[in-house]
Design brief:
The structure is a single chain. With 894 residues, the chain is of the alpha+beta class. It is globular, with a radius of gyration of 37 Å. The strands form four sheets. The protein has a seven-stranded mixed sheet, sandwiched between helices. Strands 14-15-16-19-18-17 form a six-stranded antiparallel beta barrel. It has a three-stranded mixed sheet with strand order 5-10-7. Among the domains are: 245 residues, no CATH class; 215 residues, Spore Coat Polysaccharide Biosynthesis Protein SpsA, Chain A, CATH 3.90.550; 88 residues, predicted glycosyltransferase like domains (Thrombin, subunit H, Beta Barrel), CATH 2.40.10. Strand 2, helix 13 and strand 3 form a beta-alpha-beta unit. Helix 20 crosses helix 24, helix 22 crosses helix 26 and helix 25 packs antiparallel against helix 26. Keywords: c-di-GMP, Cell inner membrane, Cell membrane, Cellulose biosynthesis, Glycosyltransferase, Membrane, Transferase, Transmembrane, Transmembrane helix. It is a multi-pass membrane protein. Catalytic subunit of cellulose synthase. It polymerizes uridine 5'-diphosphate glucose to cellulose. It is found in: Cell inner membrane.
């Protein structure tokens, strides 16, 4: 054996060296010790060796007496007494007994004598004899690796390849051979990966002149554009690799060649800009890791026997929302397909309103309230937890209307995994948010929230880090009890609760299947208030329960949670990017100490690669450059709350997001747009200063001037779009119209029956698409029957108009029972939001850039119209005042 040959070679070399150095053996015939080897190697004279040896023996004997070492040649006794003091007279020597027991077990395991020397024990650990099995590292570690590898192989064969344990031997052997070939490539893959990392390091740190850097960037961008068109997740990995290579190369250049500032002012502003860039680099890296492989989890079916289904409590918390907002959610919850004896619905009213109590009794659901509003929504849910007994808790915000299949879609994951604590579904909104309504981009540009529920949560699920989002979710009661209920330490109780459960080893599931829909915020001010609460809460969690530290989380979970929290710190960096070019254009400060050509050669590829990779990853859920608009709108408002919450996490309180409001008249929200207008004014001043600098400034700085002017122009486009969002569009619908195709039957008063389908509907009426044109008179009363599965229900309607083969109907006054069925046959249909993902078009960066620029121009048009109308109104008022003053003067004279 190889180990026996190495052992023999070691002994031969030791004996030759002992003869060469004249190392004496001990009097008892044992091999020379460490002291004999040291003396032989350092002292030539035999007399000196004897004298030193006698002195060392004398010192050792005195030290042995001092430490109470009984056997001088036993190194174990020396180690024992160096650590533990000898036992007092009459008392048992517990450390000595424990050490003797440990020595006996160790020497027995290693198959060496009980009084074996130190090097003999070490040799037994590291060498394997032919006549015994390996008993200690590294051989035991190797065997453990082999056993783990075998278990992994069996799991791959049986689970991933779908081969059951009773597979015929021939087929199993075929897969075994294929898998062995794959396993043989693991070492090669590791070597290739290490070589690749070395190559990336070499590429990153190799200095290029601007022209060489330009050629390098052209090559990598060409490769990225090719891989962007490939419909494979592996192409995403390549794009991420190219983007990170370009980014790290830019970071290396930025930190090593662009920070040689001349003045204190330049250094202050320059390092502030670098700090903001470092934040974006970190968010970019964390974002890539978070979304590197979306899980696309499938629905787990329930067992066919309903007796095995668990009991579920449905919580619908409310505070100050109107009955017209709460009613559809309660009616839809009553229509959820689940055994009635295992389903309890609770309306949790923190407003303690009598009308809600009466409605709950009429709807047949439980009504629950409490004497105070401590801890807001979290306290409301925790109070209900102590009063109910369901095994699982389904939570819906009072404006989120569930479909009938909600529990049948989500509960299978709990029965499959006993450690599953949460199943979260997307938050889908059937009404337009302020961006979609004010910019008229619904269907053309994804709204702000779709990125999170479309790709981020699905990426979190890969790392077992899906967040609880406060609604449209089911939680296991035992998991909630283990973490003390819903978290109350922060105002984002949902994400904090999920973090606590993950720390305790619970699993979470995200199903990208819309099973509920709700109302988006009606106004920009309400939207901003909601985002402020989210930002403050995430900053609080990052401060009091930082996911990067503490126990219980895996690396992927830490990164996902950290990215979700650090994302809301974008306020200050975004403001820095909006103001940075002004420092040069207005004050002449060189905040990047490099030539303009070098800056472009490094920063533009970094930005281009990041946009290409994110465009490929985010696809239908976020268009390029629109993140700049969303962040510019909110930057000023989240900067202060996140900073204050990070310094003092106890500051601030929970605020309820208003839903169901109306906007009686279109108007420009001057109050909410003040920060954008201030930033806009600074950028306009910087642009004008840049124009003057072009004509009267130093000629050799034309490159830097053009670069900063282009930067300012981009900022002006972003701020223009932000101003356009602040123009609130009139919204007087109390019930939002939803586009949905579902089968219907029209019963006309003359006896005709027409099978048709709906085009859209709302709580007040619906539009039908008929196979043939029917033109009844306006005001004609009829009936429309809607189908849900095998069930059909009719509703009285009146005709309000017709166009071609389309008929527009309004619901006549409905009874409570009819109103309940209307909700369940429309919003509560199992297929109500089946096509929520189909309407989205993939991102095209160039097109998205021009869309954003067009929105910026629209914002300036809106601002000009507003200022002009204000000027005209003020001029008219002053003219009226002058006329009235002249009349008063004339009347006085008369």
């Amino acid at each position: 054996m190889i180990s026996d040959a190495l052992r023999s070679l070691y002994r031969l070399g030791r004996d030759i060296l002992a003869v060469r150095l004249v190392v004496p053996h001990r009097p008892d015939g044992r091999a020379p010790g460490v002291m004999q080897w040291i003396l032989a190697a350092t002292v030539r004279s035999p007399q000196h060796r004897l004298w030193i040896s006698q002195m060392s023996d004398h010192v050792v004997a005195r030290l042995a007496v001092r430490l109470d070492v009984r056997q001088l040649d036993q190194w174990r006794d020396w180690w024992l007494r160096a650590v533990f003091q000898p036992a007092r007279a009459g008392r048992p020597d517990y450390p000595g007994r424990a050490f003797s027991w440990l020595n006996e077990r160790l020497t027995q395991r290693l198959d060496v004598p009980a009084d074996a020397g130190f090097w003999q024990v070490v040799g037994a650990m590291l060498w394997r004899r032919a006549d015994r099995r390996p008993a200690f590292p590294p051989y035991t570690a190797w065997l453990a690796f082999r056993r783990g590898n075998e278990r992994l192989r069996l799991w791959l064969v049986q689970s991933l390849f779908g081969i059951p344990p009773d597979t015929p031997a021939e087929l199993a052997h075929k897969f075994d051979r294929k898998l062995e070939k794959v396993m043989q490539w693991r070492v090669t893959s590791t070597i290739v990966a290490l070589l690749g990392l070395f190559g990336v390091f070499w590429i990153v740190t190799t200095p290029f002149d601007p022209f060489s850097q330009l050629l390098f960037s052209i090559c990598t961008l060409t490769l990225a554009l090719v891989f962007r068109r490939l419909d494979s997740q592996y192409s995403v990995l390549v794009l991420i690799g190219l983007s990170l290579t370009s980014t790290v190369r830019y970071v290396w250049w930025r930190l090593t060649q662009s920070l040689a500032f001349d003045t204190v002012a330049e250094a202050t502003v320059g390092y502030t800009l670098v700090a903001a860039e470092m934040y974006t680099w970190m968010i970019l890296l964390f974002g890539y890791i978070q979304t590197i492989w979306p899980l696309h989890r499938r629905i787990t079916p329930l067992p066919p026997d309903t007796r095995e289904w668990p009991t579920v409590d449905v919580y619908i918390p409310t505070y100050n929302e109107g009955l017209d907002v709460v009613r559809p959610t309660v009616y839809a919850a009553c229509g959820i397909d689940w055994p009635p004896e295992k389903l309890n619905i609770y309306l949790l009213d923190d407003g303690r309103r009598e009308e809600m109590r009466e409605f709950a009794a009429q709807a047949g659901v439980h009504y629950m309230t409490r004497p105070d509003n401590r801890h807001a929504k979290a306290g409301n849910i925790n109070h209900a937890l102590g009063k109910t007994q369901g095994e699982f808790i389904a939570i819906f915000d009072c404006d989120h209307i569930p479909v009938r299949s909600f529990l049948q879609t989500t509960m299978g994951s709990f029965l499959k995994d006993e450690r599953c604590s949460l199943v979260q579904t997307p938050h889908h909104f059937f009404s337009d948010d302020p961006f979609e309504r004010n910019l008229a981009t619904r269907g053309a540009v994804p709204n702000e929230g779709r990125l999170f529920y479309g790709i981020v949560q699905d990426g979190n699920d890969f790392w077992n880090a899906s967040f609880f989002c406060g609604s449209c979710a089911v939680l296991r009661r035992t998991a909630l009890d283990e973490v003390g209920g819903v978290a109350v330490e922060t105002v984002t109780e949902d994400a904090h609760t999920a973090l606590k459960m993950h720390r305790r080893g619970w699993n979470t599931v995200y199903l990208k299947v819309v099973q509920a829909a709700g109302l988006a915020t009606e106004s920009l001010s309400g939207h901003v208030g909601q985002r402020i609460r989210w930002a403050r809460g995430m900053a609080q969690i990052f401060r009091v329960d930082n996911p990067l530290f503490g126990r219980g989380l895996k690396l992927g979970q830490r990164i996902c949670y950290a990215n979700g929290m650090l994302h809301f710190f974008y306020g200050i960096p975004r403001i820095i990017f909006l103001l940075a070019p002004i420092c040069y254009l207005f004050f002449g400060l060189h905040i990047v100490q490099a030539a303009a050509l070098s800056i472009c050669a490094y920063v533009l590829p970094h930005i281009a690669h990041a946009n290409i990779a994110n465009s490929r990853i985010q696809g239908k859920y976020r268009h390029s450059f629109w993140s700049d608009v969303y962040e510019a709108v909110l930057a000023w408002y989240v900067a202060l709350p996140t900073t204050v919450a990070f310094i003092n996490p106890r500051y601030g309180k929970f605020n309820v997001t208003a839903k169901g409001g109306l906007i009686e008249q279109s108007f420009f929200d001057w109050s909410i747009s003040k920060p954008y207008l201030v930033l806009l004014g600074f950028n306009v001043a910087g642009f004008l200063a840049g124009i003057l600098r072009y004509f009267y400034g130093p000629a050799h700085e034309s490159g830097a001037l053009v670069f900063n002017l282009l930067w300012v122009m981009f900022n002006l486009a972003v701020l223009g779009a932000a101003v356009a969002v602040a123009t609130e569009v009139k919204q007087v619908r109390r019930t939002h119209r939803v586009s949905m195709r579902m089968p219907a039957t029209l019963y006309l008063p003359d006896g005709r029956t027409v099978a048709c389908h709906t085009r859209d509907f709302s709580g007040g009426g619906l539009a039908l698409v008929l196979p043939v044109a029917v033109d009844p008179a306006v005001g004609t009363e009829a009936h429309v029957a809607l189908a849900r599965g095998a069930t059909e229900y009719g509703f009285p309607v009146s005709v309000v108009g017709a166009r071609g083969n389309q008929l527009f109907l309004a619901f006549m006054p409905l009874t409570a029972e009819q109103d309940k069925h209307l909700v369940q046959f429309t919003f509560g249909r199992a297929d109500a939001w089946r096509d929520w993902d189909a309407e989205r078009t993939r991102d095209e960066p160039i097109k998205a850039l021009f869309e954003m620029l067009a929105m910026g121009l629209r914002g300036y048009q809106v601002l000009a119209n507003y200022l002009l109308s204000k000027l005209v109104t003020r001029w008219q008022n002053s003219l009226r005042g002058a006329r009235q003053s002249w009349r008063d003067t004339t009347d006085t004279r008369v």
